[in-house]
């Protein structure tokens, strides 16, 4: 079946295959068990190394806070601070503006990004499986829609390429230009600090003229299209973004201010290596005090730590679920038993993953804070105790 609703097209494809036998399902489960074992082992590595990283980062931040020196002036370089960790805040400045001669555009900023999108066909799938006459049938609805995409969509992978063919490449490429020399006052920022300037904002094109006869400006886009209001597959639109305004602009305002904490080396700001083994080179937009900067860094470290803990727990849960899947396969011919076993296996995976995750975290803390390690180790027993308490006692004979 095929239908066309405006630019959106769709068709349905039905495939069928014989229902897999017991030995075939058992073989698939065995492969899943091996994958589960790998995932299970990787979760230990992720959880253990994450705790060491988090504590090391926290110690490095505390060390940095105790050593950092706020500069009195950003317009003079004092030799007394050579090699020391310094704090300064000021407006960004660059030696030359960034250009895109193809579109007649220039801006005094740290970064200028050209973002190119092409109007293309995009395929979407919606599948459902059902059993009929002893066979497993899969009904897939393929729908096609035209959209602006920044990456080339390979239409050769479509279920039906005829009528939905995309160009193999874009005539105009995206790119990001970065200023070779970025300063705050008299201090030159290292590449690592410049990389942190990534708060991109879209550049308004309302003050620019159409750069070529085959290019039309519409809003904040340049269109390579005969009719931007009714684009065709293969048409392009180009937008621009900037980060770190480094000069006063009549349309964009004054230069952006940043706060930097790094090691002073001559007139350069470079990474500072702490005794804990971490590197400090911090940059935030705005004018922040030393305490505000380190508070933000501690908050970022905490968020990253909990995100990796959640990822580690999830990896362990998935690994245990895959390794115990074989019990589900052995009873999947009996619907009621199968559902009960499935619930039991999920509960087992939750309890074991939680206990082993807490135990692994406690081992990670053992070398740094033994008392906290002991407390977390005791918490790891709680899920097992709760699960055991819910098991009904045996009836007395």
UniProtKB/TrEMBL annotation:
Principal location listed in the UniProt entry: membrane
Membrane spanning residue stretches: 29-48, 310-331, 343-365, 371-387
GO biological process: lipid metabolic process; nuclear membrane organization
The entry's keywords: Endoplasmic reticulum, Membrane, Nucleus, Transmembrane, Transmembrane helix
Alphabetical list of InterPro entries matching this protein: TMEM43_fam
Coiled-coil residue windows: none
Membrane topology recorded in Swiss-Prot or TrEMBL: Multi-pass membrane protein
One GO CC term on file: endoplasmic reticulum membrane
Localization, UniProt: Endomembrane system; Endoplasmic reticulum membrane; Nucleus envelope
Family that this chain belongs to: Belongs to the TMEM43 family.
Protein name: TMM43 protein
Gene: Tmem43
């Amino acid at each position: 079946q095929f239908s066309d609703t405006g630019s959106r097209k769709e068709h349905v494809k039905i495939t069928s295959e014989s229902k897999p036998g017991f030995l075939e399902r058992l073989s698939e489960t065995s492969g899943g068990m091996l994958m589960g074992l790998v995932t299970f082992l990787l979760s230990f590595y992720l959880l253990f190394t994450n705790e060491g990283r988090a504590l090391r980062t926290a110690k490095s931040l505390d060390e940095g806070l105790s050593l950092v020196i706020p500069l009195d002036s950003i317009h003079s370089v004092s030799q007394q601070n050579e090699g020391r960790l310094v704090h300064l805040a000021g407006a960004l400045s660059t030696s030359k503006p960034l250009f895109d001669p193809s579109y007649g555009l220039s801006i005094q900023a740290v970064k200028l990004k050209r973002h190119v999108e092409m109007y293309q066909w995009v395929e979407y799938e919606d599948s459902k499986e059902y059993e009929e006459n002893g066979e497993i049938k899969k009904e897939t609805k393929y729908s096609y829609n035209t959209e602006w995409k920044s990456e080339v969509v390979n239409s050769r992978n479509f279920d039906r390429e005829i009528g939905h063919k995309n160009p193999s490449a874009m005539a105009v490429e995206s790119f990001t230009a970065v200023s070779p020399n970025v300063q705050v006052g008299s201090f030159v920022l290292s590449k690592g600090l410049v990389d942190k300037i990534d708060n991109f904002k879209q550049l308004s094109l309302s003050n620019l003229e159409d750069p070529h006869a085959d290019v039309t400006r519409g809003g904040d886009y340049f269109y390579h299209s005969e009719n931007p209001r009714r684009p065709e597959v293969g048409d392009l639109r180009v937008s621009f973004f900037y980060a770190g305004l480094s000069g006063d602009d009549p349309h964009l305002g004054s230069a952006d201010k940043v706060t930097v904490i790094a090691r002073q080396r001559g007139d350069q700001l470079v990474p500072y290596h702490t005794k804990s083994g971490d590197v400090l080179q911090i940059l935030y937009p705005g004018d922040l005090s030393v305490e505000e900067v380190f508070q933000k860094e501690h908050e970022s470290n905490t968020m990253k730590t909990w995100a990796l803990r959640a990822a580690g727990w999830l990896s362990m849960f998935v690994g245990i679920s895959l390794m115990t899947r074989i019990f589900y396969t052995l009873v999947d011919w009996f619907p009621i038993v199968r559902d009960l076993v499935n619930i039991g296996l999920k509960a087992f995976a939750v309890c074991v993953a939680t206990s082993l995750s807490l135990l692994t975290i406690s081992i990670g803390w053992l070398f740094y804070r033994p008392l906290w390690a002991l407390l977390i180790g005791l918490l790891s027993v709680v899920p097992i105790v709760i699960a055991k308490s819910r098991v009904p006692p045996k009836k007395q004979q």
